[in-house]
Amino acid sequence: MDPLTGWYRDGCCKTDEHDHGSHTVCAVMTAEFLEFSRGVGNDLSTPRPEYHFPCLKPGDQWCLCAMRWEQARQAGVAPRVVLAATNVAALRYCALEDLQAHASA
């Protein structure tokens, strides 16, 4: 809830047919992942007040695009996953075994 995450900005990783990024993987941000994300064109570390986006810091939980999480996994920088808060729709892009291997404690 702080920062307020999710496609609907309701704190949950819910999705619908308009969510083309599939914001369904609940991940715990790390400095390494945030740097990776900035490097591939999605700067999550800079506040964007025009979008009511404060910025993310290591330790924040965020509903990531499933494809971005998979891209980060393949690059060896995937953040930990909160399985109980990750939407089953993430399985369209991510293997359950990979999500489980990155589960947060």
Describe this structure in words.
The protein has 105 residues and is α+β, with helices and mostly antiparallel strands. The protein has one domain (23-102): Phenylalanyl-tRNA Synthetase, Chain B, domain 1 (2-Layer Sandwich). Helices cover 23% and strands 12% of the residues. It has a 3-stranded antiparallel β-sheet with strand order 2-1-3. The longest helix has 9 residues, at 31-39. It is globular and about 35 Å long. The mean pLDDT is 93.
End-to-end CA span: 19 Å
CATH superfamily: Protein of unknown function DUF2237
Q: What is the mean pLDDT?
A: 93
CATH class: Alpha Beta
Morphology call? globular
Q: Which regions contain 5 or more consecutive residues with pLDDT less than 50?
A: none
Largest sheet: 3 strands, antiparallel
Annotation field: number of helices:
3
Strand order of the largest sheet: 2-1-3
Can you tell me the CATH architecture? 2-Layer Sandwich
Classify the fold: give the CATH topology: Phenylalanyl-tRNA Synthetase, Chain B, domain 1
* Percentage of residues in strands: 5-15%
Number of strands: 3
Which class best fits the helix and strand makeup? alpha+beta
Question: Which SSEs are present, and which pair or pack?
Answer:
Blueprint: E1 23-28, H1 31-39, E2 61-65, H2 66-74, E3 80-81, H3 96-101
Antiparallel strand pairs: 1-2, 1-3
Quick gist of this model?
By secondary structure, the protein is of the alpha+beta class.
Summary tags:
105 residues; alpha+beta; Phenylalanyl-tRNA Synthetase, Chain B, domain 1; 3 helices; 3 strands; DUF2237; DUF2237 domain-containing protein
